[in-house]
Design brief:
single chain, 206 residues, alpha+beta, Aminopeptidase, 9 helices, 25% strand, globular
Length: 206
Amino acid sequence: MKEWNLGSGVVLRSATLADLPALLSICLKTADSGKDATHLHNLPDLVGDIYAAPYAIHEPNFAYVLVASERAVGYVLGALDTSKFESTLVTEYWPHIKEKYQSISTALLKNDVELLAELDKQGFGDVAINAQYPSHLHIDIIESHQGFGYGKAMIEHLLNELRNAGSHGVHLHMSATNERALLFYQKFGFSEVYSDENEKILALDF
């Protein structure tokens, strides 16, 4: 297993299927623009089933988990070829996840309803963006470990891995209202290529 020491007992290592529960938990605990969204969801795994689990399962070569004192506290996830990744998920992942949430007895909160609608829309992204920036990434770190420089090290690591694998560009999706995240990504050279009231897409050429 690949592992990189970031100091103070913190390491970045390759994610495995055994990390799936931790990835789902981290995704939920950062889903409110980097803050804990547990109180906003009665379907706690749903956000991670959409935004985290697919990478560990179907693109493990570019899935990394941040571990502090033997506890997973963050992740950085990517796909080398977004179009190929999306095609794989359409046939091998989304049908199973949609079936998982077909019969729900739990009372749903507003965010659950919105995420279920998002799940129904999962498929293929923007063809032009995927062509110009074929890779994409997704990073989250729980609040207790934000602000220590781990995010910078994680992004730099994944960008290097994607570049070394032959990618010529990378993009990411983010909340339109998360100004802190926007400033963070701009430090790496990401620029906005799409924006609406809900999200921004940022991209970077290699």
